[in-house]
Amino acid sequence: MIAHQDPMHILLADDDEDDRAFFSEAITELKMDNKLTLFEDGKGLMDYLLNPDIKLPHILFLDLNMPGKTGLDCLKEIRANSRFKDVSVAIYSTSSSEKDIEDTFIEGANIYIKKPNDFSMLKKVIKEVINMNWQFHTSGLNIETFFFSI
Amino acid sequence: MKLNYNYDGNIACRTILQDQLEKLNISYQLLDLGQIEISDDIADDSFEELQTSLNRFAIHIIDNPKAQLIQRIKDAIIEIVYDKDKFPNTTISQYLSDKLNYRYGYITNVFSEYTYTSIENFIIIQKIERAKKLIIEEKLSLTEISYELNYSSVAYLSTQFKKVTGLTPSMFKRVIDRRRKLSNTE
Q: Which of A31, A105, B71, B134 has the most Cβ atoms closer than 10 angstroms to its Cβ?
């Protein structure tokens, strides 16, 4: 559990440069104190996470479709490692089929985001996700049964 | 072999506190949820020792008065969500302001400033959190769960569950079951 005054650590792995820029901009508009680290692909993210000296993030956002290591590959690796059990994983996808959502949750994701098309919608979605994640980390709620699909 | 278990976080926390305080020879009295009365002043080094030993269990001593108030608001809400006999006959706002001795306007302002959510929303999140536990335990039907959590109908519980998680209660159960199966086969 974290204290209210601690900053929230956020990671994003997305191969699309524009999407990364939009995401960063949306994050700077949050009221909550935060620290964002960006990755261009799944391999970069996993190399970073597997370094034992880093401070673990509270939440990481994964684009599902990345060349090389996909978001799903990263998700499986992360959930196979108990060191990351308190890290919430949010999956970003263009699909909104119920089966894809269910399968992603079964693999261990906590949050499923259907990528919105416009920027103002994206900001709203990110804000809701981060706020909900904050409640889980500051109120002792169970991350293992944390699901949020938006 | 895998064992399933359930637990009462409140009892677990009290037991840990008792053990740790006794180990450090501090005389104490456990008060309401989230508060302890320490009989004598404790020396700085044993206070530090207490903090360190409690941090291991993710129990933190709160020394900021606003953070203390927020914790007391959360505890008061959790108390009524987990015990339907304690659910107030009055409004939640009346209950909280009586219990905490502050104007409700002040309580809601401090709460949303620090938690980035409203008291109303926090109550909903806590009710759904308990609903999840009860669904996983499989002892009660969804209708019984809705009664246990003071919902006027099972449809209302399902709607709120879907709003908070994005899943229906049955999809939630299916995901949990299939996750367990997946981790059992690995």
A: A105
